[in-house]
Amino acid sequence: MKRLVILGGGESGIGTAILGLRNGYEVFVSDKGEIKKEYKNVLGNFGINWEENNHSEDKVLNADVVMKSPGIPDSIPLIVAIRKKGIPVISEIEFASKYTDARIIGITGSNGKTTTTMLTNHILVEGGLSVGMAGNIGDSFAKMVAENDFENYVLEISSFQLDGIVDFKPHIAIITNITPDHLDRYDYKFERYVASKFRIAENQSAEDYLIYDADDTVIVDWLEKHPVKSQLMPFSIQQELEQGAFLKNNKIIIKINNETIEMTTSALALEGKHNLKNTMAASTAAKLIGIRKETIRESIANFQGAEHRLEKVLKIQHVLYVNDSKATNVNATYYALDSMSAPTVWIVGGVDKGNNYKELMPLVREKVKAIICLGTDNSKIVDAFGNVVDLLVETYAMEEAVKVAYKIAERGDIVLLSPACASFDLFKNYEDRGNQFKEAIKNL
């Protein structure tokens, strides 16, 4: 009996444990921290051995294969020791893909992954297909494969998950965009992060497709130097394309093998330029799979966006409150500010990931009337924008930030939470931050 050791007892770890057990592995789960009670219950129900607050080397280094959680860096001594022994270290996406023959649409990118994944899934469901949505969103892919028999999977995949693939091959791969993010995991070398994202296409063949942003110079330059075997399906809002999706006369036009779909941009449920691109990517994928034009049109018109991503919360005294807590880097906040259609009171701050706020300067000058900092250390934001806006206030709790915004905002304004930072200084995660924002608004 082969021994599967799983490092990390979170969503992906537990899913892999169940799938491993069902496929005849002896399974052991090891977590350096504490495992959540709900996950311990699952492990107990399945009779799976586990440990927490420790990785016992003797129980790990006798594995035939190791699945490590995407949160564990490759550089830690334990991973180095496992590899030295010649034991393969793979990701949950790789492990799960071995146990399904389903068609896979894999979606990666620095921003827009979640919305594109949800929208693609929505169109496929509306088209009547058997489809599961997993990966970085909802249930783990492994758990879905263990418990269901879907014919299609739409997977949101991070660069960390792609780092652990060997044979994983999506029929359709989407790269939404590539901007500097998580560089601490890639020795601060941007090209290593880019290479990691492009692993989504490395096992593809000429029957497969790569959908990508043709306006993203990082992606285009990389493809010129590192051609892929799959068929290229670009999308663009700047240029007309022979094949792929583009914008013309306020219409999205999708051309695939002499077939054309046209959709007016005014019909889109999602606002903002970035969502035009997310819609192009999802619609192209749906068309490649054979979803009818009418279904695609209807689906993009009635789609409800992702929570914590430009989510309209409430209008109070003609002021709209927008929750974009999922914007954890400058690029995501750039999209948010770009889509603001009224004077904006901007709530920003948190744990800085080495942000360069200069990129936001033109948008701040054009759109932002006041800035409310929300973080334990706001010095970089104050330095960047202190002289640019008329009013900048520092706050240290969500309730306080929302109360200040309520006082500042006037009829017709927008209050936007788009932090451009991670949330771990004052909140558990970006969901907690977004939920506290919504709660504080309801308590006004």
How many structural domains does the protein architecture include? 3
Look at the helices and sheets and give the structural class.
alpha/beta
N-to-C CA distance: 60 Å
Which sequence of strands runs across the widest sheet? 7-8-6-9-10-11-12-13-14
Q: Assign the CATH topology of the largest domain.
A: UDP-N-acetylmuramoyl-L-alanine:D-glutamate ligase
Please count the helical segments: 17
Main β-sheet: number of strands, strand sense, barrel status?
9 strands, mixed
Identify low-pLDDT runs: none
Measured as a percent range, the helix fraction is 25-40%
CATH class of the largest domain: Alpha Beta
Tell me the number of strands.
20
The CATH superfamily of the largest domain is identified as Mur-like, catalytic domain
Main location: cytoplasm
Protein name: UDP-N-acetylmuramoylalanine--D-glutamate ligase
GO molecular function, one term: UDP-N-acetylmuramoylalanine-D-glutamate ligase activity
Binding site for ATP: 109-115
